[in-house]
Structure formats: C-alpha cells, structure tokens
Write a structure and sequence with these properties.
This protein is of the alpha+beta class. Helix content is 60%, strand content 16%. A 5-stranded antiparallel sheet has the order 2-3-1-4-5, sandwiched between helices. Helix 1 packs across helix 3 (54-64) and helix 4 crosses helix 5 (117-125).
Amino acid sequence: MARPDKAAAVAEIAESFSASAGAVLTEYRGLTVKQLQDLRRSLGDNADYAVVKNTLAKLAATEAGIPGFDELLTGPTAIAFINGDVVEAAKGLRDFAKANPALVIKGGILDGKALSAAEVAKLADLESREVLMAKLAGAMLASLSQAVYLLNAPLAQAARVVGALQAKNKQEQPAA
C-alpha cells in the first residue's frame, strides 16, 4: 500500500474514533465470513464493525488523542465503532461472543478512556437506556405521589377536626 493510502486509512479510522460514542476491540480469529456478516447485521445501525490493521489503528488512536490503546492491539483486530447506545452495542457483542466463542472482546474505549474486557462486560450487564429512564420516571412518580399524600394529610386532619367541632357545637346547643 502506498504512503498516501495509509495516511487516508489512518485519517478514516481516527475520524471513526472521534465521531463514535465509543469503540469495542475484538479478536475475530476463527470466525467465518458469514459469522462476521451475522455480527454486523446483529449490531445494525448501532455500530460499524471494521477489521483494521494494528499499526494503522495505533496511529489513528494517537491522532484521535486516545491513550492506553497499544496493549489492546495484538493479533487480528476488528473494532466496533458505536454510533448509538453503547450499552446495546456491548450487549450485542457479548451475546454474539457467547454464541461464537471465537470472538474475543479485548477491551474498548468510552469517552476517550480505555476500558478493559471486564469493564466492557460490566457495561453490557447494564440495563438499556429506556429501562433505566422508565425506572427513574417510576421513582419520581412514587416520590411525587408520596409528597401529595403528605401535603394532603394535614388538610384532611384539619377538616376532620373542624367537622368534629361542628358536631360537638350542635350537640351542646339547646334545642329550641
């Protein structure tokens, strides 16, 4: 490959690092072309899965300002550049790796910080954004309904006291 081609490839990978929400590095040794296509399909619009040369990826990571990346680049490497929900993409890769043990998750990058394979696994264990938002909304609703109850309790008690005083007042007044 000529030098300008390498520079263009490095610039393209660096742009992918900069434009993506995160990236997960995998080793794909032993996977067939069909399995790689299935993996790409399973990730959908959430991530772009690309096979890269380690030397070009190192140069691109340096260019993109990502530290601690070199030790992850050993053996055949493919990178999933995550464009959408990071948790969903990590879950997709984890599930595919369970079904196809030849896919090994090496680590990743999130917000410019290098992640170990264990940290990527923890990320995959998180619930999706929608589920977390629903839980937050439920907790907020419960807090609001509890606050409404607490604010209504003194008013209801005051109304009962006034009602009791009126009843007592009617009993004490002589009949005409």
